[in-house]
Amino acid sequence: MSKSLAGYTDHFLRAPAILMDLSGLLSIPSMGGSEAETHAQEFVAALMREAGLEVHTWDMDLAQITADPQFPGQEVERVQGLGVLGIWRGTGGAPALLINGHTDVVPPGDPQAWSADPFLSRSQQINNQDALLARGACDMKGGLMAAWAAVKHLRATGFTPKGDLLFAPVIGEEDGGLGTYSLITEGFANYYNLDQHEIMGAVIPEPTSLAAICANGGALTFRLRIHGAAIHASRRTEGVSAIEKFFPIHQALAKFEEIRNVNVDARMDRWPVAYPISIGTVHSGDWASTVPDLLVAEGRFGIALGEETEVAQRAFEDCVAKACARDPWLCDYPVEVQWWGGQFASGETDEQARIIENLDQAHMRITDQRLEKYGAPYGSDLRLLTGLAGIPTVQYGPGDAVVAHAPDEYVYISELETTASVIAEMIQISIS
Ligand SMILES: [Zn+2]
After folding, report:
1. Which of the listed residues 91, 212, 335, 402 has the most CB atoms within 10 Å of its CB?
2. How far is the CA of 238 from the centre of ligand 1 (A)?
């Protein structure tokens, strides 16, 4: 497979070897906020120690980092967080390369919707191809272990890097980016000072179906509090239903979404709605025959490429305020907008960046196909690496994001192998 290493065994780049490490990682139910989130980090740290990398681990100072004004937010309770940074020291004379990937997964949801235990990986034919099914197979333990296979392969074949290779599994990606935030503010600060080292780029092997995602729209989690006036349902016209007062707000947000999606950036125009606004939860009322006096709706607000988070927040608040101004009740009792939980800014890497050129070359050598490049409508750790740490970052990995977070999530095994080979190739191009 790896043409530049012809003559060496490809053992670590092949499915049986990849699946050995991957099935172990998939068996850990590392949902955000669970104790297993730490176990998954320990699992990857152990793999790296076993392979002889220099491995640093740290207990995140959660009180301090969550109080930081730049902290991107989290949506689950955490009492612990384990940071892990593996370093393969190069001989010098080239900048470093970072591989970053999250080990946390979202909960499996309704177990009945799964064909088997979500944390017991199994292979199955899907669309006439061998696929591996489990929570996290696609997003993104599959990609992370394929990238790890590339590192193992290079170590086994005697590759001597000039630049350092950094391998950083992280937690908390799904609910805001705690792990990568800690990697930058604690991991790099204590174990790999970015003022003294240059990192030429980062690859996040998130599920991209082997395309390069160089830009991410942002996503801000919001909460709306809509007030009404409670009264016995038999006298409803003398009260105000918070549910009915939500309708004009919902309509205004739908219109706002439409306007924001006219003439989107060319990197995003493949998506039906590049920057969606979606209501995820609605809670109102506590008694069937009482007119509800409060409705709380939570949702997700898509941020455009290059759009400042604060500017977008103000535009959203303005849209809600204008809708309130058109309604006499809402004029007197305006809807409150709260920003909480994950606050993903948008992020992007120049398509001319060396990391993307190198990936392009590696992908071409392994697959004989040009690398497709575009932006994605979801927020990810990419924006923390580009925005906070100034590291040009690209997502490239196995699996289709459309099955991520869904029951019977899967990844094609051939894509795991291709990712391993392409990343092995890319590491050689980048830090030799
Ligand atoms: Zn992911």
Report:
1. 335
2. 49
